[in-house]
Amino acid sequence: MENETLRVIKNRRSVRSYLDKAVSQEDLKILIKSGMAAPSAVDMRPWDFVVVKKKSTLKALADVMPFGKMLPGAGAAVVVCGVPEKSVPDAPEFWVQDCSAASENILLAAESMGLGAVWLGVYPVKERIEGVRKILNIPENVVPLNILSIGYPKGLEKPKDKFEMEKIHRERW
């Protein structure tokens, strides 16, 4: 039986083409709150978020992201950043999982709100990390994990059925 949550999960798609319409501050706050509702190891929440709306900054980000050419046309972007020193002390690498969960929450929230979004990987590519860091003045101890490009979809992208039974193993590999 499909409920609203399952519908949103199944209909989420990577949206790269947007209408010329701004994303409101209120909608961005809802998206960030959704990200912050994600689980994190030992509830450390080793994340920070940079919200970008200026077209000049979106263009600059597109210039350092090989697959980010849609950014100047987006209504906004959210850069999800990890702060390893705020992660689990004996396993600071957990920031990657925590920030990934926050990112997926934002993507699902965007879908549920009629927005479209796409995840653009920054980490672990050094050139992308340094480029994004420089443009957004991100401190050296903070790592940009990704850029989530967000806007009102033109409706070109369709959800994909990604279910593959052969990728399921029971009890053991």
Automatic annotation (TrEMBL):
Superkingdom of this protein's organism: Archaea
Molecular function per GO: oxidoreductase activity
Keywords tagged on the record: Oxidoreductase
Matches recorded under InterPro entries: Nitroreductase (IPR029479), Nitroreductase-like (IPR000415), Nitroreductase/BluB (IPR050627)
Enzyme Commission (EC) number: 1.-.-.-
Xref: SUPFAM superfamilies: FMN-dependent nitroreductase-like
Domain Nitroreductase intervals: 9-64, 77-152
CDD domains: nitroreductase (cd02150)
Protein name, entry field: Putative NADH dehydrogenase/NAD(P)H nitroreductase
Organism phylogeny: Archaea, Methanobacteriati, Methanobacteriota, Methanomada group, Methanobacteria
